[in-house]
Amino acid sequence: MTENTNPASKLPAKRSWAEPWKVKVVEPLKMTTREQRERAIVEAGFNTFLLRSEDVYIDLLTDSGTSAMSDWQWAGMMLGDEAYAGSKNFYHLEEAVRRYYGYRYIVPTHQGRGAENILSRMLIEPGDFVPGNMYFTTTRLHQELAGGTFVDIIIPEAHDPASEHPFKGDVDLAALESLIGRVGAEKIPYISLAATVNMAGGQPISMKSLRAVRALAQKHGIRIILDATRAVENAYFIQQREEGYRNKSVAEILREICDCTDGCTMSGKKDALVNIGGWLALNEYELYEEARNLVVVYEGLHTYGGMAGRDMEAMARGIVESVQDDHIRARIGQVEYLGAKLVEWGVPVVRPIGGHAVFLDARNFYPHIPQDQFPAQMLAAELYLDSGVRAMERGVVSAGRDPQTGEHRFPKLELVRLTIPRRVYTQAHIDVTAESVAAVYGQRQSARGLKMVYEPKYLRFFQAKFERM
User: Fold this and answer.
1) In the chain, what is the straight-line distance between the N-terminal and C-terminal CA atoms, in Å?
2) CB burial readout 169-195, b (16+ within 10 A) else e
3) Environment class of residue 308 by beta-carbon count within 10 Å: exposed (0-12), middle (13-18) or buried (19+)?
4) Which residues contact 36 (CB under 8 A, 6 or more apart)?
5) Which of 270, 341, 363, 390 is labelled catalytic?
6) Catalytic hit among 57, 136, 304, 441
7) What domains appear along the chain, each with residue ranges and CATH number?
8) Could you count the other beta carbons within 10 Å of the beta carbon of residue 14?
9) Cα–Cα distance for residue pair 415/383, rounded to 1 Å
10) Is residue 270 annotated as a catalytic residue, yes or no?
């Protein structure tokens, strides 16, 4: 019998993939020693937000404003119309939002939280309730500062990191109906829906759930406002997981998502592939009139809203690129590649793998560290110490304190987010990250908790400092 020398017979069942782009410009990275990283993390108070970026090897802190722009976007930067009023780039951005997201009116802002601030000031009165599919840090703070109370109406599976539910961002319709019955529709200025849900592990909401919420909201005369920051990623998950959408393009599904809502806040620093910028989009002219008046107070004129013309042009072009199926397939594919490695090695992560990040389950990583000793904060620090990879905490520190009691909020999910910037890192960087996580997991028994030694009043996860117990 002759040996089979056909090389095709040795191919894996699943063929390799490569990114749909090539590198044109590189940024050198600084390599550090363990001793240097020890000094850096102590100086930063064990808060990865306070590290200097030059001391970081692979930066997975966030995908916000950290993506790589294309040559087409950079070319657009040279066409910036920096007129104070009526920049042509604003009209290009407005056209792109109307075409791909479908909203009638757009108010540009410096980033997503600028849109959240304006929206909250317009719609929320003291004593109002804002239901949503899990909180996000800046969104909830703006709602609370306006006098509102956030109410979580996400399905229970979202709080279980081991659940394989394909749409953990779905709304618990019974919980929403119960809230409406308890407080009355007049006390609910809008329903706040995120796509995808960051704090749940980058988990999508299904079109079925969106339609059901829409029907209930229309019945009671309540608006739906979408956090569209990563709605393109959500559209991809619907395409892949929900019956009847496999043959639809991501762009078509994105429009269908937005058509179920009355407006959106947007951080263009994520899906839209730019370093700065965002917008508030609305379908009601009266609200738009108020918003474009408020943007002058807090951001800038209604045709630039805190952005330069060149940034608006880059964002308009980034929107076009973001909805291309090849782009989003590769973007989420890189996240899934990292997640699959960690799952294979038995590392506890949120499942299914989300769209923009892999979330490590710090509670199961460090079961011996109580939540009031900040296990996720410790895990992020240990990962940096091991390899220079910077991640971020998404647990009790991010949850903050209850404004009534002053006590820590203790979320069910105590996570560390490994956030993948778009079009920035190679598969080799992802391999280094996976191996570092595995190494830290192997040494998990020796880890100990932290105590907080400095706490700012708002959004403490950005600036709080810690020491080892």
Assistant:
1) 67
2) bbbbeebbeebbeebeeebbbbbbbbb
3) middle
4) 55
5) 270
6) 136
7) 18-56+325-468 (3.90.1150.10), 71-321 (3.40.640.10)
8) 6
9) 13
10) yes
Residue (of 81, 109, 104, 87) closest to 297 by Cα position: 109
pLDDT tens per residue across span 205-259: 999 999 999 999 999 999 999 999 999 999 999 999 999 999 999 999 999 999 9
Q: How far apart are CA 34 and CA 44, in angstroms?
A: 15
**Phi then psi dihedrals of residue 328, to 5 deg:** -70, -30
| Helical packing angle, 112-123 and 285-298, nearest 10° | 120
* Tokens at 280, concatenated: 């508030």
Q: How far apart are CA 90 and CA 102, in angstroms?
A: 16
Answer for the pair 85, 303: CB distance below 8 angstroms, yes or no.
Answer: yes
So what's the pLDDT on residue 385? Answer: 98
Q: Which of 37-69 are b and which e, b meaning 16 or more Cβ less than 10 Å from the residue's Cβ? A: beebbeebbbbbbebeeebbbbbbbbbbbbbbb
Beta strands in 283-404 (DSSP E): 357-361, 389-390, 392-394
103 annotated active-site: no
Report the distance separating Cα 169 and Cα 132, nearest Å: 10
48 is known as an active-site residue? no
Q: Quick check: is 84 catalytic?
A: yes
- Tokens describing residue 398: 């991010």
The answer to whether residue 365 is catalytic is no
